[in-house]
Amino acid sequence: MTTEFTQDNRRYFDDLAAKYDFPPWMQEISARITTYLQEQLVFLGLSEGATDGGVSLLDYACGTGLVSRALGPYVDSIQALDLSANMVARYKDLAASSSLASVKGAIARVGNILTDELANEELHGFSIAAICAALHHVENPALAISKLAGRLRTEGVLLAIDFVEDGVAQYDSPAEHTIHKHGFSRDEMKGMMDDTGLVDFEWREMPGKVALMMDNDHPIFRTVFLARAVRKSI
């Protein structure tokens, strides 16, 4: 069942989609995360060389496609999902103009992995499943991690990209009503991934803080982390 909190997220990101990519501060954050991800290919179980033709990515809470574009050169196929229909539409527009075959051919759709609406067989067996800057918006993060883990093939990698917990209970931000919690600790992420049966947990923090300019007079400085773990058996 879709909750009112989830509906608030859907409405907020539907309204934001058309202008999401345009603020310079957002472009800078996207560029930094893209560069950092592409520096962490071994950490993510990917390689710079030719793939075997079967490397697949599930980009969950895909937004306009940051993770798809960052990892597109290293995967063969992409399935993208988001709660927001307008974000999915924007994703498709950007993907259509991509020079990367995996991004141009990506299948993007509206969906909520926490419900049973996405039980399709085609949404299983991924090499990597990623959720970027969205887990803090999810009402039940542990359930989201479990559901994403269940979409992986054996030796598949679950990747969560989000903000390190900083102890702040609330920010002065127009997105505040869509945020479940303001970040995660290493132990918290490890616990959620361990609990769903994933192994080989690793955590890395992106050097330097990013500046969220939700209010130009009061930037919010946050540290971005990558947490990953591996599914060893189906």
UniProtKB/TrEMBL annotation:
<protein>
    <recommendedName>
        <fullName>Methyltransferase domain-containing protein</fullName>
    </recommendedName>
</protein>
<dbReference type="InterPro" id="IPR029063">
    <property type="entry name" value="SAM-dependent_MTases_sf"/>
</dbReference>
<dbReference type="Pfam" id="PF13489">
    <property type="entry name" value="Methyltransf_23"/>
</dbReference>
